[in-house]
Structures are given as structure tokens and as C-alpha cells.
Amino acid sequence: MTTMQNGVFEMETTGTLMKKGFIALQETYTVEEAITHLRQNVQGKTNIHYLYIVSPEYRLIGVLSIRELLGAHGEKNVTDIMIKDIVAFPTDMDQEEAAQIFRSEDLVSIPVVNCTQQLLGIIHVEDILDVVWQEADEDIEKLLASGKEINFHTNPIVAAWRRLPWLILLLFIGLISGGIIERFEATLEAVVALAFFMPMIAGMTGNTGTQSLAVVVRGLVSEDLTMKSAARLLFREFIVGIIIGITCAIVIAIIAFIWRGSLVLGLVVGSSLLATLIIGTLAGTIIPLLLYKFKADPAIASGPLITTINDILSLLIYFGIATMFISKLM
Amino acid sequence: MTTMQNGVFEMETTGTLMKKGFIALQETYTVEEAITHLRQNVQGKTNIHYLYIVSPEYRLIGVLSIRELLGAHGEKNVTDIMIKDIVAFPTDMDQEEAAQIFRSEDLVSIPVVNCTQQLLGIIHVEDILDVVWQEADEDIEKLLASGKEINFHTNPIVAAWRRLPWLILLLFIGLISGGIIERFEATLEAVVALAFFMPMIAGMTGNTGTQSLAVVVRGLVSEDLTMKSAARLLFREFIVGIIIGITCAIVIAIIAFIWRGSLVLGLVVGSSLLATLIIGTLAGTIIPLLLYKFKADPAIASGPLITTINDILSLLIYFGIATMFISKLM
Predict the structure, then answer these.
(1) CB pair distance less than 8 Å for B144 and A213
(2) How far is A41 from A63, CA to CA, in rounded Å?
(3) Which of A46, A195, B18, B310 is most exposed, with minimal Cβ within 10 Å?
């Protein structure tokens, strides 16, 4: 949707961000006339860096920087020296997307036009600076599931209230891992030493998952996602998972063998870590990609959520493998 | 240090960020003369929004926006209308700090001067836009320990290589938790059901820790930290930990009691979670604050690091409390 009935624009769009303080020049002006007009109208307006040339119907037809106007010959017409290839925003563009365009276009301000190209306002790069800051804060809040808008001055009851929903949700998801261990109670009772490696395997699976998550979430800020690029990314992360998995598996297999004196235990722990690291890496990639695909914000796949899901996956794999080799472990 | 011997500035400072394309006006100019000078010199220079008034020794003494110059009476002297209260950067300011100043000052460009106030260059807000973006990326990379500079196009071997150092470190830290469980082997063998709640308690402690971490790291970007504000923040997080701890402890105590039919188990799990959530919240606050205090980047206290440390703390507390009540648990 572009505008609502009452003329109010959607939150966090170019329509709400734009400001009115621009100077428009009629297309009939000469450079000299334009400078005179500028000198008469510039008072009280901050941030005048570009001048917008409009048709009688107020359609935006060109743009001129003050610099270009001042450097031009006085008798020329403004339409002779204006830039016709204009970068302009619609009113309903997401502010993060607008920030991307500011980044690539290297402009101080960009005009906002309606569907008939009429000039409505301009957005300044200073306002975009706040947007970039705010979006980065929001990404971090979501990635670390820290709850909205908690700063140094938030009072403790409000801060706790904002943090609790995620924690309660994660508490219940975390209980699933308890249910999994219960199903493998016999295995664990037979070889209590399996418990020693539980936190490490679950933790490592969570760690590699959050690493992948960070790559995906920040990548999506500046990249278009196609089926092809998603498939390529997923394949890349799969290979990364294998390399990381083999390296860590060898390290832990040797440590487990030396520590507990059991080659089978070393192999069970090592092969479990290999499998969980590959799956954890893929989960940390697929979950935010799916959220993005279904128009949800990929950053709600927070580190804690990925960690908790990977906890569950890793316990299933670890105890599954251990149970297969239980006769050799005892 | 300000500049190196060969005149090259430190990385990521105002000195490397500044550009030369500014227009300086002699202090003797009238407005009319300044406009003429401007019209003659503006060609080929992009991003001219302010004019800098300099003394014969090229010291920066004032600033004028083109808008103000154009709106002023032609016979006035530029020194009569210039703004004398100038915001200027030294050459050795960190680019993140410069971005902060851009955010609060709402300026399109800010001049850079040397120690004798001579004008060396200017920094544009468009360049700061990239800085803010890049610093946010760096914060997220560090917070999620995702390794430097991995994007969608990094090849898998490079990506794995950049991610491995953190993972190997976390692997060894994770083994400490294995050592802790080994010390409590007797307790665990006696009551295997204790293992069911291990991942949930460790996970929740990590989750609350990363939440606190997010608040501290992003807060430090925009706030000055004094002993007083650190103490107040720590006290706030302590209260938050108590509120979160009591809420989650009651929930889990009831669940544990219903699930396993043991009131003592419910109380052990609940009181452990209360203690670990308070300690986890404090750890997630203290560790980045200490890093900041000792001039390290607080964001290297990544989520995975806080999670792994909190794993260890939570297991110590959980098995410690369980061992105290072991006779009642069996």
C-alpha cells in the first residue's frame, strides 16, 4: 500500500521520513533567475543542497546541485543544465531499502514523489544516518533476543518484562532437550561419561549455528536473495560445516580417548560432533533464509533460538549414535 | 598518536576519512566577492555545501553554508555572517566517534583541522554512512563470533578458516563443563534425571547473558561509561536477574515436580535456575564492562563466549545444589 486514507504514511517508510524544506524551480527559469529566486527563498530553510526543477503540474523533471547552478552561465535555461536522470523514492519504500540506495548513490538528499511523479518532499542523508543506526540496533536486539528498546536508563521492571517473553519461550523449547535425554535414560545410566560431553557438543552446535546466522542476516541487508544465491550459500555453508566438523571432530576424539581411555567413546563423541556441526551450520543458514523467504524478518531467528534448536538436534544425534554403539561403550 | 612519520594517518580515523574537495574563503571577502569566487571555483568539486573561512595562515575561523551566503546582503563581509562556533575534528579521532558527532550535530560535512587549527580536509556524511554500516557489521560479527568478513561470496575454505579459531577456543572452554560434570559423577549416577534439566539450565543462563551483553555493547556505542553509570547498570541488571530468575524458577519448579513427581527435584531445579539466571545476567553485564574498562572492545565478549562461560557457571551451581540435597533426591 502507498498511503492510508488519511494521508498518513506507513511507519518506517520514505513517506514518513521525508521533509518539506526543499526549493523547486519552474522549468522556464534561466540560471540567473534561479539564483535570484534562490537568494530570496533560501532563508530559514536548512539543508538546501539540490534544487528540483518541476513542470507546471509540479512533476519532477530534473535536479541541479547549488554547485552546478552557481558554476553555470547566467543566460542558460535551468532545463539545459539540469540532470534528467533522477533518483527518486516512492512514498512507500522501506527506510532500510532507502538507506541502501543512499549508500550506493552517494547523494546528500533524494526527492520523494507520488505515483504521478509530483514532488512531495525530500529525504536527507542525516536522517538516513539515524535509520542505519536504528536498524543496526534492531538487528542486534533481535539477533541476541535482548528485547526491544532496553538501554542504560530503562528501569529494571520494564527491562525484565521486555526480556521475559523470549526467555519463557526458550525455557519451554529447552525442556524438549530434557525429554530427549529422558528417552535415552538407559544409555545415559549405562555410560554416565556420555554426560561429560553433552554441554560441549550442544554448545558447539549452537556456536556454529549463530556464526552462520550472523553471515546470513547481515548478508541479507545488502544482497538480493534469489533461489540460485540461496542454493549457493547453502552449499557453501555445507562445505564449511564439513571442514569445521572434521577439524573439531579430530580434536575432540583425541581428547576423549586420552581423557577416558576409550577408543569407542572417542569415536562416538568425534563422529557426533562432526554430524552436529554440519547440521548446526545448515540450521543456522536455513532457518533465517526460510524466515526471509516467507517475508518474516530473518533476525528474529535470534542466536538464542538457533542455539536452543541446535541443542535439541545435537542431543538427538549424540545419544542416537551413542545408543547404536552402547554395547561397545560399556 | 596523531600522524605517522610519512604523513599517513591511522586506520579508521578522521585523518584517513577526510577529503580535499572543499572551498575556503579568505576572511577579507565580502558576500558578493565570495559568491563570485564560488562560481569560479565550484566546477568539478562535488559535495560543496559549506564554505570555510580561513585566516591568512589558513587557520579555520568560521563556516558558512552556501544557503546562508546566498541569503545574505552582498556588501556584508563574510566574517560578519559566518558561524564562529565551529564543529571540527582532529585528525586522530576514531571514525565511530566521528559518526556519533555527525549523528548529534545534524551536519552534512565537518572540517578536519590540525593541532594549530589549520584546515586540512572535510568529512562528508555520506562517508560516515558507510562507517556506521561497517561498524554495525563489525559489532554483529564479534557479538556472534562469526569471524571477520564472511559474506555470501567468501569461498568455503576461507570462511571455515576464519570461523575455526573461535570454535576451537570455545571447544576447549566447553570441555571445562565436562570436567565439572565428571567431578559430580556420583551425584549424576545416583539421580540420572538431573541430566534432563542440564541443557535447559545451561541454555537459559546463556540466553539471559547474551541479552545483557546486547544491552551493554550497543549502550556503550552511544553512552559514556562512568563508575557511577556502571554501578547503576550492574544494580539494574541484578534486579532484572532476580525478577527473571524468580519467574522462570517458579515455572520450571512446577514443571519438574509434575514431570518427575519429586518435590525436592522441583525445588533443586527451580532454585538452581534462580541462582544461575542472576549470575548469568551479571556475567553478561560485567564481562563486556570489564573489557571496555581495560580498553578492549566489549563486543569480543561474544554471545558464544558468554554462553560458554555461563554453561560452566550454571553446571557448577546446579550440581552443587543437587549434591547438597542428594540424600533427599534419591
Answers:
(1) yes
(2) 17
(3) A46
